Amino acid sequence: MGVxxxxxxxxxxxxxxxxxxxxxxEYKPEVKEEDEEEEQEYKPDVKEEDESEExxxxxxxxxxxxxxxxxxxxxEDSDDDVPLTARKKPKKEVKQEKKSKKRRKEExxxxxxxxxxxxxxxxxxxxxxxxxxxxxxxxxxxxKKVKKEDEEGEVWKWxxxxxENDGRKWTFLEHKGPIFAPPYERLPSSVKFTYNGQEMKxxxxxxxxxxxxxxxxxxxxxxxxxxxxxxMKDWRKGMTEKExxxxxxxxxxxxxxxxxxxxxxxEERKAMSKEEKKKIKEENDALTTEYGVCKIDGxxxxxxxxxxxxxxxxRGRGEHPKMGKLKRRIQAEDIVINxxxxxxxxxxxxxxxxxxxxxxxxxxxLASWTENVQGQIKYxxxxxxxxxxxxxxxxxxxxxxxxxxxxxxxRQNYQADWKSKEMRIRQRAVALYFIDxxxxxxxxxxxxDQADTVGCCSLRVEHIQLHEEKDGKPYxxxxxxxxxxxxxxxxxxxxxxxxxxxxxxxVENKKGTDDLFDRLNTQVLNKHLSELMEGLTAKVFRxxxxxxxxxxxxxxxxxxxxxxxxxxxxYNRANRAVAVLCNHQRSVPKSHDKSMGNLKEKxxxxxxxxxxxERGYKDAKKxxxxxxxxDKKKTALDRLKAQLLKLEVQETDKEENKTIALGTSKLNxxxxxxxxxxxxxxxxxxxxxxxxxxxxxxRWAIDMAGPDYVFVASKKKKKKEESDxxxx
DNA sequence: CTTAGCACTTAGCACGACCAGA
DNA sequence: TCTGGTCGTGCTAAGTGCTAAG
Length: 728
Description:
This protein is of the alpha+beta class. The protein has 22 helices and 15 strands.
């Protein structure tokens, strides 16, 4: 099966036969008139271009360009080379409680015409791919087995089953609905709130909202103006007429008693006896067993979040304009339930009704509600260990692997586009280059009422600096912007001259607050990408580059003779390379310095011990002690040395990990089969790499990948595929 | 087309359970 | 047994990207 042999256990994505050899012309790079010589640049008639005017001093060139630009602008509306923003309409009003249309297709979906077709296909396929799971092989009584298997926590090997490709996500779904936040309990009357020094008994609603704030007064959120303003506004809405007339100034509110009360409460909780804690845990487990599991297509699967978010104050990240707003309590009346028609419909709490019960098997969620702060829909969905999530995950990595097959082409393609005469194409090409090289996020447009963060397509001029030369390197672009979650991205990147010149062009005559890529947005980019490869979007590059980096790094950093500790350090380093690439950060753990100090101390002590042991050993040897004695000392010395090494490794690891979060990439970007294969190949226990949750999530990969699995075969080795069958 | 709505993935942080060393 | 620290887990915000509506 040639190239796709290593992919052939990959049902999720259709049509791998489309992928052929690297150099196959799969898509038409619409590069017009490609020029052979570097400098023999295609000359756009009106537009400026970059290289061929090399000789002109920069300033002169700039002027020239500016002039052209002006002309260009003068007749802008006639061509399609118009900044996208110019077409954009002003921001829409904030829609809080939009009535959503309920016209759904779910009623009709029971009978699909294609059904038979898929049945057919399934039958044909199943003779080949039907799994030989021990469980299933023995009994044809699948149903019975299944029940047993789930009770005992055995594995549903869905990845060995044929995947349907209609949009249907399930055929049977039954669950108990969500768990609601516990009702508000009033404060004991001994806990006083004072306003302007005056004791005040608050109404229930006002008190509840006050407690949300009181819990947070130690947090730096409460020092932010936006937080306080938003809170005050929403709090006042929850007050009675009378309260509202009195409480007008947050700074006159004294929440300290309330705060102290909660601190005390939490200490009491901590101080509970073993038995009490156990009892609570058991009650909790019981709830989890009842509500945390659903029945889907003959299997029990865990639900991810079956508890409704409790009311509280919205905590946005970064400078979120809505921070401090009240997140109101969710009732059954807010909840839409999704389940099978023929399932036991979940019961709303006594005296309540669901907002709606629907039976939409085109979606994966079990329940949803609209949150009031941002007007977004929240969902209750399955746990990552579920088939529905796992299959999607698997498919994601298969798409990334597929990208590997055409990445060379795509790179050539966008490099050629750097010279395009069309501005929008150049912008697209440079943006794509960043996405590919730097693993930037796509960068969708955002509303004003969210924190000001950007991704690639939404970069603004103020987010980059261009240096003809920096620290001895030519053509350096300095990126400095806030990305997702307001995490800062700072990077100094030497780029190709062409890219640099293009950027100078994009920046020209723009204010810092103007879009860098004014003729590009994510839809345009993704449209283009989907033409290059089926299923290709901007985010695939992140997955691809993350996974391939891990594979390469592992290859590079692993020495088969390593001890287990060294193996793990090697793995973490490879993982870290990816985390750095993807800019996955974390705040330095509070205890970092301290625990680092402890570690260092330990190392010192251990060093001393090693020295002593060394001396002891030498003395024994010289002193002509018995062979047994000498050997004993030698063993002791070796053990100490090993311990020291382990500590030192730990130290390195810890220091390097200070501000880098490994978890995110491990969970979301790294094809788990790479890690599994590596573990199997070098006999590293998988538990050292993946904890229990992670192993559950990646069960499919653990089962599937053998020691020889490769994410992508290294270049020009794609012929000998048969051996890459990762069976078992 | 553009835009809004929707579904789903990706993200860092807080907190509590648990564990190793004093 | 206590304590300090680490780690796992839950939580929920914040992204991406597709599609239907306007």
